[in-house]
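Q: What would this chain look like folded?
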Amino acid sequence: EVANAVGAITGAVTVMVEATITPDDDVYLAHTPTERRAFDTLERAKAWTSACLLALLEEKIAQAELQKFDLHRAVECVDHQGASTVGNIFLECRMRATAVGRPEFAGHPAAVSA
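A: My prediction, written as structure tokens:
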């Protein structure tokens, strides 16, 4: 039991938020955990989705009481190479924001490793 308690205290916590952007007729639909919005360009959809993910991640960071953390963002867009007259066809964009850190326990800040 002591080993489990030590592992729980010294272990890292990971919080993550994901979203996708998909095409729909002449718009791009951004799907986040809290809402869905349509945009006329992929760039606008990516910008809004990125800002939304960071705001949602900040909420999760506060809930987990992470004081010091590393932030990671990943964007993966999937295209399909069409016929020569069509060019690339956008299929989907997956976006993820992740924070990894140590929570504060009982008013004691997380230890900083060297």
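Residues 110-114 have pLDDT under 50 and may be disordered.
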